[in-house]
Design goal:
Shape: globular
Largest sheet: 4 strands, mixed
Helix content: 10-25%
Structural class: alpha/beta
Length: about 140
């Protein structure tokens, strides 16, 4: 949330969007990867789960992802999916791993280690088969 605030305050969102539209490649690590995706979640009240709301990110990668929360069970990722449209997938990128997102957002390649996939069907969040790495870079 703070990263997107800073980009907006410094008038960087449009600048970066122009670069993206010109075909520049982008790479994000950790929160940077989340910021390249479609949306993320924040809580108006950190002690009240019902206060969760989505906020827009850059949207260059038309996906939802979280990074290095394998020990936390990807709870924030699952929260985002509960707030999103049905049948949307979310990707849990573990520590030491990366994903490559192709422009349509439908082709995802994992690198380093397997990336977990979750999907929302109605009120249920289900785990899908992992995306296995095609190479270890």
């Amino acid at each position: 949330d703070r990263g997107m605030e800073l980009l907006t305050q410094r008038n960087m969102v449009n600048f970066l969007a122009v670069l993206f539209q010109q075909g520049k490649l982008f790479f994000g690590a950790s929160a940077g990867a989340i910021m390249l995706a479609k949306e993320w979640v924040r809580w108006r009240d950190p002690y009240d789960n019902s206060s969760a709301e989505l906020f827009p990110c850059l949207g260059f990668a038309p996906i939802i992802c979280d990074c290095h929360d394998e020990e936390g069970g990807w709870e924030e990722l699952k929260t985002v999916l509960r707030l999103e449209e049905d049948n949307l997938k979310g990707y849990g990128i573990p520590s030491g791993a990366a994903i490559k997102v192709f422009p349509d957002g439908k082709k995802i390649e994992a690198s380093g280690s397997a990336t977990q996939q979750y999907i929302r069907h109605g009120k249920k969040i289900s785990r899908e088969p992992d995306i296995l790495p095609i190479s270890n870079i």
